[in-house]
Design goal:
The structure holds two protein chains of two kinds. Chain A is built from seven helices and seven strands, in the order ααααββββαβαβαβ. By secondary structure, chain A is an alpha+beta fold. Chain A has a five-stranded mixed β-sheet with strand order 1-2-7-5-6. In chain A, strands 3-4 form a two-stranded antiparallel sheet. In chain A, α5 (about 325-340) crosses α6 (about 360-380). By secondary structure, chain B is an all-alpha fold. Helices cover about 90% and strands about 0% of the residues of chain B. In chain B, α1 (about 1-50) runs antiparallel to α3 (about 55-75). Chain B contains four helices and no strands. Classes of the chains: A alpha+beta, B mainly alpha. The interface of A and B includes residues 49, 52, 53 and 60 of A.
Chain lengths: ~425, ~110
């Protein structure tokens, strides 16, 4: 083949391709119209497969054209043509045979009700016809000046925002002191329960219910026993006198005493050092050997106040010399009594005279006689520190100095207990 | 030393270009195959709903697009293949929906 004829063949081929592309585009426009008609005629119902084939083939054809492969496009356009014609033919009689036209209802009165703002409230009833608002507010928007979320018509304090602290948040008023205890909620540890400022706004509690608030109660979990003894501290005092005997059984709860005496302190009425409950003679000064009863002496009797002598100690006339065996026996028993009774801390040996003679001489004589008795007792091993000798002369008579018997009574020696 | 360095640089560049080329060429087939598989699955699902009878328009479209997608793969036009495979899947899903609705509509009302 000559180069000339080769070039001519190439030109022919190119012309064939160009014509084919233009034809395809022209055909595609026709097919599109046919398909539109077929669709309107009900091809979707009567010729769905043909319609689908035609539409798809048309798309493929156009796609191939875009790709530059017009010979494939031509094949697809042919398929599309055939299918669209079939679809048109099948849908020709596809429409409904009979159409029933219902009579339209006749309009008698037309009432126009408008709602411009679309809030559901008709304009004739809407106080704010151009502004959206609820029916409850006659179609006007609900205002909330303080912005607390509670509309002004329900807000008791429309200009003060609700504090929303969980306490009466519906009224719209801020509650700065919920419990009205005088302490602002911010500083109140118990904002919803009233309490004194001293307790940071919290109520004063009394867990043990003894009437003493816990902050003052030294024993907040133990109730005060209120028995008149230290009832302010809040702690129960179960043994007020702490004698080991519980108050419930202590007959003397405020005075310590041994359990043997039911919690009461031991008394010693006669002061002999032997407690009354152990003292067989609680009102008589006694010794332990006699179970608190006085020791049996023949010449002396020990009482609470004195050592009484049954007979007087005799002295030589106008002298301090003790005379007579009986006087010695009396002194023996006085000494013995003092040694038997150590509870007698001190005695006073008193010397007394009658009124005969000079007063001063009598005073001296009585002092000397008291001294003599004290010396005699010292000899009988009585501690001198337990004794004092004092002469009173004739100043303290116990009987009349007018009679002999009275004078005899006034001449006497007494052993008075000073300390025990 | 200098010649050896420049040789290595050229080899590295060639290796990079080859890898990129392989990557680009592999991307199309893999992607289109995935879309084709998806369209196939959708079509099978539509078949189980009797879409071939109850949704003939969508069913036919789906089949035609899937067929065309495969054809485009054959021409190595993977981009177009993906487009058609996606359309096929869409038509298949639609066919299944139409068929299911049609079945429900024809079902007698359930006994109260």
């Amino acid at each position: 083949m000559s180069p000339r004829s080769l070039a001519l063949f190439g030109l022919l081929l190119a012309a064939d391709g160009c014509v084919s592309g233009a034809q395809v585009r022209a055909s595609s426009e026709v097919i599109k119209v046919d398909l539109e008609r077929a669709r309107r005629s009900g091809a979707m119902r009567c010729a769905p497969r043909e319609l689908a084939t035609a539409e798809a083939s048309l798309e493929f054809a156009l796609g191939e054209l875009d790709e530059g492969t017009s010979f494939r496009a031509a094949e697809h356009i042919k398929e599309a043509e055939v299918a669209s014609k079939k679809a048109l033919a099948l849908s020709k009689d596809c429409g409904p045979k009979q159409v029933l036209v219902k009579e339209q209802p006749q309009l008698i009165v037309k009432i126009e009700e408008t709602d411009k703002d679309g809030d559901g409230v008709l304009d004739k009833d809407d106080r704010c016809p151009t502004t959206f608002g609820p029916v409850e507010n006659q179609g006007c928007p609900v205002l909330d000046r303080d912005g607390d979320g509670i509309p002004d018509d329900k807000d008791k304090c429309p200009d003060q925002p609700e504090d929303k602290d969980g306490f009466e948040d519906q009224d719209g008023c801020p509650d700065v002191d919920n419990d009205n205890d005088g302490l602002l909620d911010g500083a109140d540890k118990c904002p919803n329960v009233a309490g004194p400022i001293q307790n940071l706004g919290c109520p004063v509690t009394d867990k043990d219910g003894d009437g003493i608030p816990d902050d003052k109660d030294k024993c907040p979990n133990e109730a005060e026993d209120k028995d008149g003894f230290q009832d302010e501290d809040g702690c129960p005092d179960l043994d007020n006198d702490q004698d080991g005997v519980p108050d419930t059984t202590d007959k003397c709860p405020l005075e310590p005493g041994p359990i043997d005496n039911q919690g009461c302190p031991d008394r010693d009425r006669d002061g002999d050092g032997i407690v009354d409950r152990e003292d067989a003679c609680p009102d008589q000064f006694g010794v332990r050997e006699e179970k608190g009863c006085p020791k049996k002496y023949s010449m002396v009797v020990v009482t609470k106040e004195k050592i009484e002598i049954k007979k007087q100690i005799k002295f030589a006339s106008g002298s301090a010399k003790i005379i007579g065996a009986e006087s010695e026996k009396i002194l023996d028993e006085v000494g013995q009594a003092l040694n038997d009774t150590p509870s007698i801390k001190k005695i006073r040996i008193e010397g007394h005279t009658d009124s005969d003679g000079n007063d001063a001489a009598n005073l001296t004589l009585s002092q000397n006689r008291a001294n003599a008795v004290m010396s005699a007792l010292i000899k009988r091993r009585v501690d001198p520190a337990r004794m004092e000798a004092l002469g009173f002369g004739e100043t303290k008579p116990i009987a009349s100095n007018m009679t002999k018997a009275g004078k005899a009574e006034n001449r006497r020696t007494e052993f008075n207990i000073v300390e025990q | 030393m200098g010649e050896r360095g420049s040789f290595q640089q050229v080899m590295r560049l060639r290796l990079l270009a080859l890898t990129s080329l392989l990557g680009f060429t592999a991307c199309g087939p893999v992607q289109s195959t995935a879309y084709l598989i998806d369209a196939d699955v959708q079509l099978e699902a539509a078949r189980t709903a009797q879409a071939d009878k109850l949704a003939p328009y969508e069913w036919t479209s789906a089949n035609l697009y899937l067929h065309k997608a495969r054809e485009e793969v054959g021409y190595s036009d993977f981009e177009q293949a993906v487009t058609y495979a996606q359309k096929a899947a869409k038509f298949a899903a639609s066919a299944r929906d139409v068929a299911m609705k049609s079945v429900r509509k024809d079902e007698p009302p359930a006994n109260p």
